[in-house]
Write a structure and sequence with these properties.
This protein is mostly helical. It has one domain. The chain is built from 10 helices and 8 strands. Helix 1 packs antiparallel against helix 2. The termini are far apart. 38% of the residues are buried.
């Protein structure tokens, strides 16, 4: 068995508490912003524009993640409406973070005439990588309840403060390592998406492939988790995965096409020329003041 003896909190100073989940979530978000900003110039995009978009993507992601969590635990929050916005007390849904982050970032990008599809394609591989980073905090916290599994690779939380204490199987029970399964699946998906970069058109198709891969993996893995069952033996994450999968597959079948290296190079060149014409964000601000 894989015993996890560490408690859920990294630092506790008076009323200030930094959980492992919060720490790794911060590292994940910061890594995503850094990676996309670093890759942006290769597509003729100013990194400063990425950082501006990231602010709204993060805000949208936080709101979306909290919304999905509240809906999944609506019985509790109907009786405790004051806790709905208390995100610092814990409780987020990754699907909400993905969808909310996309809507927040894409909305800002559209308003400012940035290429949404291109930026989404840059973000897709970063998402798979940083989701694995964020899940490290979930492993320590023990917050994902899973089915019992008496096997050598089963996860066992032994710290009495672990969030696993609220699960049906609780402390000291070996369960399916569902978080590790998801991390492994994300890395496989990353290998595929990395090889597809610059090979699909129009822009935005790599993002759609990312959604398909994550939806398929999450749908299967969720059967090994023990969250609230909505209907037909399936949980909230199942239904969101099916919805996202259906939309993404239709978009890919309708629009996605392979393109030659020459087409990809021409598209990048056109964006770089357009970017030079617009100037950097600082240059655009100086022009506006002038």
């Amino acid at each position: 068995m894989v015993e996890i003896v560490v408690g859920p909190n990294l630092v506790t100073l008076g009323t200030f508490v930094l959980s492992w989940h919060g720490f790794f979530s911060f590292i994940a978000v910061a890594s995503a912003v850094y990676l996309v900003g670093r890759w942006a110039p290769s597509q003729g995009i100013d990194p400063d524009d990425i950082y501006s978009i990231a602010i709204w993507a993060i805000l949208g992601g936080i709101l979306g993640a909290r919304f999905v969590h509240v809906i999944d635990n609506l019985d509790y929050y109907q009786g405790n409406p004051g806790q709905i916005l208390a995100i610092w007390s814990g409780g987020i849904g990754l699907w909400g973070g993905i969808v909310g982050g996309f809507l927040g970032g894409a909305g800002y990008a559209l308003l400012n005439k940035h290429p949404v599809g291109v930026i989404a394609d840059l973000t897709a591989p970063a998402m798979l990588f940083v989701q694995a980073i964020g899940r490290l905090g979930d492993i320590v916290n023990g917050e994902h309840c899973a089915r019992a599994w008496d096997f050598a690779l089963g996860f066992v939380w032994t710290n009495p403060a672990s969030d696993a204490r609220i699960c049906a199987n609780g402390i000291d029970v070996s369960v399916q390592p569902v978080i590790a399964y998801e991390m492994f699946w994300n890395m496989l998906a990353l290998l595929v998406i990395w090889r597809l970069r610059g090979k699909l058109k129009p822009a935005g198709m790599i993002w759609a492939v990312y959604l398909v891969f994550y939806a398929v993996g999450r749908f299967g893995i969720t059967f090994l988790r023990q969250d609230k069952v909505w209907a037909l033996g399936m949980q909230e994450a199942h239904y969101i995965a099916l919805l996202i999968l259906g939309i993404s597959v239709v978009i890919l079948l309708w629009k996605a096409r392979f393109m030659s290296p020459e087409e990809a190079a021409a598209a990048v060149s056109a964006r770089q020329q357009s970017s030079r014409g617009r100037g950097t964000r600082a240059e655009r601000r100086r022009q506006e003041r002038g």
